[in-house]
Amino acid sequence: MSTLEKTTAAAKAGGHPPAPPALEASGISKAFQEKRSRLQVLDDVTLTVGKGEFVSILGPSGSGKSTLFHIIGGLVKPDAGTVRMNGADVTGQQGHISYMPQSPALFPWRTIEDNVLLSQEVQGKVDKEARENARMWLSKVGLGGFEKNHPHTLSGGMQQRAAFLRALLSPQELMCLDEPFSALDALTRSDMQRWLLDIWEESRRSVLFITHNIEEALLLSSRIYVFSGRPASVLHVIDVPFPRPRREEIIEHPDFIKLRRELSGWLREEQLKMQGAN
Ligand SMILES: Nc1ncnc2c1ncn2[C@@H]1O[C@H](COP(=O)(O)OP(=O)(O)O)[C@@H](O)[C@H]1O
Ligand SMILES: [Mg+2]
């Protein structure tokens, strides 16, 4: 049944047509022109994030994941394909997503608090309440007392937490996180995962999350798109079956272990293919 037929059927049945997804990226392809050669990076990628869904992209390093985020954020134009948000075509337009880039990208001349409040400031929404809210979050992630510091005085992990808060407190509905915990040591990473899981289960923001950490993807996501090596295409789509709220104990569940093994096999295979090609 086509989307239109489904909508009509829902309307005839007396229900409302389903709300359009927060994000629909359809048929995205992209090549970069190098001096003498063309590097095909994305090949016909289609994915969807429903309202309030937590969706992950899991793929080998160098496959094209960050490039897809740049396209969704309107920083890079695709050669083919469209980006729709809430049903509207926003291909090539900026400002529609809250984005945490792979490197924290904090402004060095702004304090941590002012960095965290940046997106709200752009939208003219920083009042006393917003500042108090930002301070509350800063202390929740262990940055209490560092509000007036400048980024260079903080460790990499602390900068990453500040960048994450900036994305979390941005007003846009869809939050795109590009490997947000990659610079953290294992313990902090596990704390941050736990913390993100709690926040998400409470707030149900629409999230698109890039990672190459399999356990992280299984723990957090409702759905996982497994990317091939470059040029990236969608190899598998996994609906993660574990009920919410989730607890760390699920990593010991036989189904979790089975999925982890399967995903790890696919990723290894793609990594080897890419090494063979380079
Ligand atoms: N602006 C660009 N110009 C040329 N090549 C690029 C550009 N951006 C990314 N690439 C190349 O595209 C490939 C995929 O990069 P990226 O999307 O960062 O992968 P991932 O995030 O999956 O590690 C890499 O080989 C990278 O060098
Ligand atoms: Mg990347």
From TrEMBL:
Keyword Lipid metabolism: no
Entry's transmembrane regions: none
Region (Disordered): 1-24
Keywords: ATP-binding, Nucleotide-binding, Transport
Sections of the chain in a coiled coil: none
Pfam families on file: ABC_tran
Domain called AAA+ ATPase: residue spans: 51-230
Biased composition, class Low complexity, residue ranges: 1-16
GO MF: ATP binding; ATP hydrolysis activity
SMART domains hit by this protein: AAA
Residues making up the signal peptide according to the UniProt record: none
PANTHER family in the record: ABC TRANSPORTER ATP-BINDING PROTEIN, TAURINE IMPORT ATP-BINDING PROTEIN-RELATED
Protein name: ABC transporter ATP-binding protein
Species for this entry: Paenibacillus albilobatus
